[in-house]
Amino acid sequence: MLTIHKLLPQGQGLAKVLLQRAATVELDWDVRQKSRFAATDSQGRELAIFLPRGQAVRGGDVLVAEDGSLIRAIAAPQRVLKITACATHGTDFDLVRAAYHLGNRHVPIELQPDHLKIEPDHVLADMLRSLHMTVVAADLPFEPEGGAYGGHVTHDGHSHHHHSHGAGHAHGHEHAHSHDHAPAQPAGGCGHAHAHAQPKAQCATGAGCGHCDHHDHAHHPGQGCGG
User: Fold this and answer.
1) Cys bridge to 219: 22, 103, 104, 194, which one at CB 3.0-4.6 A?
2) Are strands 23-27 and 70-75 parallel, antiparallel or unpaired?
3) Are the C-beta atoms of residues 199 and 141 closer than 8 Å to each other?
4) How far is CA 166 from CA 169, 170, 192, in A?
5) Are residues 205 and 224 in contact, defined by beta-carbon separation less than 8 angstroms?
6) Nearest by Cα to 123 from 1, 217, 33, 195
7) Average pLDDT of 167-181?
8) How far is 12 from 25, CA to CA, in rounded Å?
9) Structure confidence by residue, pLDDT tens digits, 132-154
């Protein structure tokens, strides 16, 4: 078993040829956000990782074993929700608004210029569709912003925990009942009325997020971009 105590962010300082020759280990975010875990690399070697507490492993980072072996980390595809502005009725600002509302709920978010990614959550998917976002489930690598969730970590090895909420701030799925929904849109919105009266298997959006079964909160027709 190889014991690892050191990480080089993005292989910093290593020659390209060394990175190309290095073994790899494919890990999802649930594992990579931990500082202590076991894994098996592409050469079949067992790894015991003991990084400084609070240090996450990002895709492209290089783990350095005690014997000098290099193992390049790869962000494994995992089930996520990919969020984009409605191509027909949305604007670039919609993505900013969506990131703001997700940030208020303290969930891990991957920020990209043209989309966001979060871990699957049917309540948040429903909220995002009400904000004219297109939400699609997909299997993709997930690299959330450092410190985006209480206790989540960054390369500096520090845990960024900012949970000092007032008594009125509820967590969990209760958030779905305190959304600041966008105003009702006129007819000709995004074309995906939320058919809450349908059984779950007949969800009008077809995105597979199960968002039609959690409450009887009425949405205005045309507010959800089901993708």
Assistant:
1) 194
2) parallel
3) no
4) 6, 9, 36
5) yes
6) 217
7) 39
8) 18
9) 899 999 999 999 997 534 444 55
